[in-house]
Design goal:
The complex is a heterotrimer. By secondary structure, chain A is an all-alpha fold. Chain A has a domain at 76-262: MetI-like (MetI-like fold, Orthogonal Bundle). Chain A has helices at residues 31-51, 68-74, 77-108, 113-122, 130-140, 156-184, 188-196, 201-212, 214-229, 232-238, 250-259, 264-289, 291-299, and strands at residues 54-55, 63-64. In chain A, helix 2 packs across helix 12 (264-289) and helix 3 packs parallel to helix 6. By secondary structure, chain B is mostly helical. Chain B folds into two domains: 22-67; 78-285, Orthogonal Bundle (MetI-like fold). Chain B contains 14 helices and no strands. The radius of gyration of chain B is 23 Å and the shape is globular. Chain C is α/β, with parallel strands linked by helices. Chain C has two domains: 34-154 and 325-367, Periplasmic binding protein-like II (D-Maltodextrin-Binding Protein, domain 2), CATH 3.40.190.10; 156-324 and 395-433, D-Maltodextrin-Binding Protein, domain 2, CATH 3.40.190.10. Chain C has helices at 2-34, 49-61, 63-68, 82-90, 108-112, 120-125, 127-130, 135-140, 164-170, 178-190, 204-218, 220-227, 237-251, 268-274, 287-294, 296-301, 338-347, 351-359, 369-372, 379-391, 399-402, 405-420, 425-433; strands spanning 39-44, 72-77, 98-101, 150-151, 156-163, 194-197, 278-284, 303-306, 321-324, 328-331, 395-397. The chains are: A mainly alpha, B mainly alpha, C alpha/beta. The A-C interface holds A 57-60, 141-145, 150-154, 239-240, 242-246, 256, 259-263 and C 83-84, 87-88, 90-91, 109-110, 112-113, 115, 200-201, 256-262, 268, 271-272, 277, 405-406, 408-410, 413, 416-417, 420, 422. Chain C: InterPro entries: Bact_solute-bd_prot1, SBP. Chain C: This is Extracellular solute-binding protein.
Chain lengths: 301, 288, 436
């Protein structure tokens, strides 16, 4: 809040140098929203931390057991495996989705009619819910009665790639749209200048399009990373964490510990870990993307 | 209203470049087109096949004796009821999110106090927190609140977790309202309340519609909350209904796929009617 | 401002309607739990649940329902989620009044939390219940000698089902010994038929193989020690031997290549057997009603069954049975209408209900069942099953229900890893010995 403002990306034009005091609502206006969010989102996080120190099977009241769950968690090979799978899945699906969405988005930014029609078609998968999409591929991949017969989901790499693919199939339309919006805002004059300097198409892409899209890419990446942490439905429907525990990502590990083994204390420890990891990630992203500085931009108005 | 003239920054748009052809990306788009279309095509043709024909057929051939029986079966298996629940839940989520985040974002943008800054930071942090992570404590809270197995159990937490991104979108839009606009209104002696209704809301329609779409999609997509917080038929939403069809229809793949097709129809209709709004709304989620 | 206020009005009225809608949904539901009269009952939502649906419909129209002022609302819960749904509902204020379970370990947590009605006194004072069932069956579901459940489905021994037509075409007979089984596998494989259907996506289907092999190799005592809670008992050589046999079956592709993504709950494995893609299927006796529901012709003409084969040189008797005694209805201690619940339980002992189960291919555990078996759609199957259970020297309860609840999920995961080849038989045994 205190950092001096040096950049003004696309802030509204400034009227007076010093800000006036008009149109300033009382802070209490924010109260209902804040309280609601605190109650249904922040309080559960605190409760998750508390529950991680208890033993609770879902019946009766949680019983305090100190660090037991955490000790189990640290020594648990399932956590190591789950963490590896989660990170791997996040990275691979980020790469897969970014490359395709970037390419398609920049292409679709053109104004040709065929591109407009194709972008309309590209968008269709996004209209289905994640559950519906997971079911669609579950049915198509059924080893005996599906359309693509064979043991896709029964092998470790097959199941892993299927989840990546299904995630991409669902979310690439959305990210394409983001890149399309971003690409349309790149000033044409940059390309004209580059063309005068004799830069080729590939060069233009790497020295103009990509740098100009860095904010778009940051935003899209945040959403992708957060999105891939929540591939829960896909995993539950397609593989149930299998084969074995090879696709049991963290949210699935938590679900299984809680709602299959009824070890809600342990599940809460996993949940707390997930919240801490996600918060760390979110802080990092905020720093990189400069969301936080948007406020500072305004401060200088 | 006429005294207000919002200043809008017109984004620079490509002109000549926009018309250039691009063979590499063109080929990639064609490949992706196939990837998008083939599963959808296989889904629709299979959903029209009879149960006997389905097992052995090649998915890329149209069914020999197309039938709508599968769709009939889905419609008789509670589908309309689930859809209604989903619509109700989505409306509930949208209403809560809009009513709470508009004033909140207004404060975050216009009030420089310590508390409003803190509130904004709080929501900023919430952006990356997956709702899945807190399902266990939420389950405990929901049973204590005695709303287990009702639509409220889905709506309230879904709305709470849709708020961070909504606030982010709205603050982004609200910042574009110029200082003169507020000043002009204050000359008329407008209170912050009047400004909210006559200036802030009308000028942030774009942001609000993005928030509406975003939060409606959260409700539309929600699966884990309904799975854990409801169990009976009455509050069952579409995603959970679809999931239950897996056991109910078993290896009757055509019926399962018919339910998937049907689940896409309502939003497809929305897409056809309001494609522009939907697409620009989704672009809005990405920010500028 | 005109248009604006109109929109505002629409918004407000929309919000009002919405609130009304949400509340209506919420409240109508909580009414059903609280009105005292209506009871909810959770049942495992497979094909056989239609028997319970009929029974509930008849009960709701009966004079007993009127007298006690209670009607029952049955909720079918899809199979794979049943235990989790039950647990979350039981932990909430809207717990079911009656629910389907497997007795024993499956209800231990609820008994420990004082959530179930101890039915001992009720059974003793109600002749219809006391004399209505085979006494041993009520006891099998009991915990520390106290009964918490009334039998509501058939006996469930695990049998080796086979497709008669596939066997006939190959000129083969179903196996009675392990050597024969291996020999038959080879012959089916050369004909391009998968020897066994296995719904490996549901881990308990794999457990059946482990349980029977351990029984046939080492006898029922091996598991009896494990069940006692002694993790070192997993070190018995029979467990390792069984794991090795499973590994060689898997390596031999006896279950097909894709078994780990085939489900039982959605009917995948049963369909493989019915369509002749697989020759045999090790499954609980409910496979018969399942097949009858899905593939009537096949169930009536081509579905065969035998006991699990003997293991050459093994200590276990071929007559030993693995499975579940039956399923039970238990009553929540929080029910608002205990009388109605008990009246409903009485109907489970009735001749009418028994006949309905028999007609569905089940072997009820009611005292009068023996005399009615002739009415079964397949008396031959009914008698086979009845006699198998009657004559079994040992009846081993499904391991996942029998071991202490903390072991159940990790045990199933280890078994799954063994089947998937992710752990070797030795690693499998080591992992199980490490259970706490």
């Amino acid at each position: 809040m205190t950092e001096p403002v040096t950049k003004s990306v696309d802030a509204a034009p400034k009227a007076g140098v010093q800000a006036t005091r008009v149109g300033r609502p009382h802070a209490s206006w924010a109260l209902p929203g804040v309280l609601f969010f605190m109650f249904f989102a922040v309080a559960p996080m605190a409760l998750a931390v508390y529950l991680s120190f208890t033993e609770w099977n879902g019946l009766g009241d949680p019983r305090f057991v100190g660090l037991d769950n955490w000790q189990n968690l640290v020594g648990d090979p399932r956590l190591t495996q789950s963490l590896t799978v989660t990170v791997l899945m996040t990275v691979v699906s980020w790469a897969f989705q970014t490359v395709i969405a970037l390419l398609l988005g920049v292409w679709a930014a053109g104004k040709q009619r065929n591109r407009a029609i194709l972008s309309a078609v590209f968008f269709v998968p996004f209209l289905l819910s994640s559950t519906a999409i997971a079911l669609l591929f579950f049915a198509l991949l059924d080893p005996n009665f599906g359309v693509i017969k064979g043991d896709t989901l029964g092998t470790t790499s097959g199941a892993f790639l299927a989840i990546i693919f299904v995630g991409g199939w669902q979310f690439i339309p959305f990210h394409t749209l983001i890149y399309q919006g971003g690409a349309r805002q790149i000033p044409e004059v940059l390309y004209q200048a580059a063309a005068i300097d004799g830069a080729g198409r590939v060069r233009q892409f790497f020295s103009i399009t990509l740098p100009q899209l860095r904010h778009t890419m940051a935003m899209s990446s945040v959403l992708m990373v957060v999105g891939s942490l929540t591939y829960f439905e896909t995993v539950l429907i397609l593989t149930q964490g299998g084969p074995g525990t090879d696709t049991a990502i963290l949210p699935y590990l938590m679900y299984e510990a809680g709602f299959k083994s009824y070890d809600f204390g342990y599940a809460s420890a996993v949940a707390t870990f997930l919240v801490v990891a996600a918060t760390g990630l979110s802080l990092l992203m905020v720093r990189i993307t400069g969301f936080g500085s948007m406020r500072s931009v305004r401060e200088g108005m | 209203m006429t005294t207000v003239s919002p200043h809008k920054t017109a984004p620079a748009k490509g002109r000549s470049r926009a018309k250039r052809s691009n063979p590499v990306a063109g080929v990639a788009s064609f490949v992706w087109l196939l990837i998008v279309i083939i599963p959808i095509y296989a889904m629709i043709t299979t959903s029209l096949a009879g149960p006997e024909e389905a097992a052995g057929r090649n998915a890329l051939e149209p069914p020999k004796n197309p039938t709508l029986d599968n769709y009939g079966l889905v419609l008789e298996s509670g589908f309309p009821h689930y859809l209604l629940n989903t619509v109700l839940a989505a409306l509930g989520v949208v209403a809560i999110v809009v009513v709470l985040s508009v004033p909140l974002s207004y404060v975050a943008v216009r009030n420089r106090g310590f508390w409003s800054g803190g509130a904004f930071r709080l929501f900023l942090l919430g952006v990356a927190i997956p709702a899945q992570a807190v399902v266990v404590p939420l389950y405990l809270m929901i049973t204590k609140l005695e709303i287990y197995d009702s639509l409220w159990a889905i709506v309230l937490p879904t709305a709470a977790f849709a708020m961070p991104v909504s606030v982010l979108i709205l603050t982004g839009t609200l910042r574009d309202i110029s200082e003169e606009s507020y000043e002009a209104m204050s000359l008329d002696g407008a209170s912050p309340t009047r400004m909210l209704f006559q200036l802030v809301i009308p000028l942030s329609k774009g942001g609000i519609s993005t928030v509406v779409i975003y939060s409606a999609l959260q409700a539309w997509n929600g699966f884990l909350f309904p799975l854990i917080f409801t169990q009976s038929e009455e509050p069952r939403v579409l995603t959970l209904g679809l999931y239950n069809y897996v056991s109910q229809f078993g290896v009757n793949i055509p019926a399962l796929l018919a339910s998937v097709v049907l689940s896409g129809v309502p939003i497809f209709v929305v897409y056809l009617v309001a494609r522009r709004a939907l697409v620009s709304g989704m672009m809005g989620v990405g920010g500028k | 401002m005109e248009s604006y206020s109109r929109r505002w009005f629409l918004g407000v009225s929309g919000a009002t309607m919405l609130t009304a809608g949400l509340t209506a949904c919420g409240s109508s539901d909580s009414d059903s739990g609280k009105s005292g009269g209506q009871l909810t009952a959770f049942v495992w939502g497979d094909d056989a649940a239609k028997i319970q649906e009929d029974a509930v419909r008849k009960f709701n129209a009966s004079s007993a329902a009127k007298k006690t002022g209670g009607t029952i609302k049955l909720q079918r819960i899809p199979g794979s989620d049943y235990p989790a749904k039950l647990r979350t509902a039981m932990g909430s204020p809207s717990a079911p009044d009656l629910f389907f379970n497997w007795g024993g370990g499956s209800i231990k947590a609820y008994v420990d939390a004082d959530q179930l009605i101890d039915l001992h006194d009720i059974i003793e004072s109600t002749p219809a219940l006391k004399n209505g069932f085979l006494p041993s069956i009520i006891q099998s579901g009991a915990l520390e000698g106290r009964p918490y459940g009334i039998p509501m489905r058939g006996m469930q021994p695990v049998l080796l089902f086979f497709n008669k037509k596939v066997f006939k075409d190959a000129g083969l007979e179903p196996p009675t010994s392990w050597t024969q089984l291996l020999d038959i596998n080879k012959k089916f494989k050369s004909r391009g038929i998968q020897p066994f259907a296995l719904g490996g996506a549901d881990k308990w289907t794999e457990l059946m193989w482990v349980s029977y092999l351990v029984d046939r190799i080492g006898g029922p005592e091996v598991f009896r020690k494990i069940q006692g809670g002694d993790a070192s008992a997993w070190g018995d050589p029979a467990v390792l031997r069984a794991a090795e046999e499973i590994k060689s079956l898997v390596d031999d592709e006896a279950f097909g290549k894709g078994f780990s993504s085939v489900q039982y709950n959605n009917g995948g494995a049963s369909t493989l057997l019915a369509k002749g893609k697989a020759a045999m299927h090790l499954m609980g006796s409910w496979e018969y009603p399942t097949q009858l529901g899905k593939f009537k012709d096949f169930a009536e003409n081509d579905l065969g069954w035998v006991a699990f084969p003997a293991y050459d040189g093994g200590a276990g008797d071929i007559k030993n049975v693995v499975g579940n005694p039956t399923n039970y209805w238990s009553v929540s201690a929080r029910t608002k209408n205990r009388e109605a619940a008990i009246e409903f339980l009485k109907t489970c002992a009735s001749e009418e209900y028994t006949k309905a189960l028999i007609a569905n291919g089940d072997i009820p555990t009611t005292a009068n069942a023996g005399a009615l078996l002739e009415d079964s759609p397949n008396p031959e199957f009914a008698k086979f099953q009845y006699e198998l259970v009657q004559n079994a020297p040992a009846f081993t309860l499904s391991w996942d229900q029998a071991v202490k609840p903390d072991w159940s999920a990790p045990m199933l995961t280890e078994i799954d890893k063994l089947f998937l080849g992710q752990s070797s038989p030795k690693e499998f045994v080591t992992a199980l010995k490490g259970l706490k």
